[in-house]
Amino acid sequence: MLLPKVFTEDQALSLIQSKWAAIINPVLTNAANNSNLLTGIALINGVTVVNHLLGRMMQGWSIVDINGAATIYRSQPLNNLTLTLTSNAAVTVAIEVF
Questions:
Q1: Predicted pLDDT of residue 17
Q2: In angstroms, rounded to a whole number, what is the distance separating the alpha carbons of residues 49 and 84?
Q3: 22 and 46 share one domain
Q4: Cβ-proximal residues to 69 (8 Å cutoff; 6+ apart), any chain
Q5: Which of 52, 58, 60, 72 has its CA 20 to 30 A from that of 33?
Q6: What residues make up the domain containing 71?
Q7: Cα–Cα distance between 66 and 25 in angstroms, integer?
Q8: CB distance 38 to 61 below 8 Å
């Protein structure tokens, strides 16, 4: 979503709108601002495939909560449907995907 621009013949208003758009649009289009929080994800000791529910190509992910000690890493390339994680312990996590 980009900041909408009202077309006007007023030069000052047009300049202000352009300046605001240049500042605000990068924030609005940042993938991290359009994320999903997946809670209660049970990871096994091994590989777990999680549907990220974004409906688009995933840009990244972050563990935001975990109930035990584990090393977790992405074991398949990012795609538009799933996140494949490998863990060295059975834990429950919350994951932010963006």
A1: 84
A2: 4
A3: no
A4: 89, 91
A5: 72
A6: 35-97
A7: 33
A8: no
Helix, strand, coil percentages, rounded to 5, for the chain: 20, 35, 40
Q: The tokens 């977790």 sit on which residue? A: 72
pLDDT tens digits along 7-65: 788 888 888 888 888 888 888 777 777 899 999 999 999 999 999 999 999 999 999 99
Query: Exposed (0-12), middle (13-18) or buried (19+): which is 67, by Cβ within 10 Å?
Result: exposed
Number of domains making up the chain:
2
pLDDT digits (tens, 9 = 90+) for 51-96: 999 999 999 999 999 999 999 999 999 999 999 999 999 999 999 9
The answer on 53 and 86 residing in a single domain is yes
Contacts of 96 (CB under 8 A, 6+ apart): 35, 36, 37, 38, 61, 62, 64
pLDDT at position 81 = 97
Neighbouring CB atoms inside 10 A of 41's CB total 17
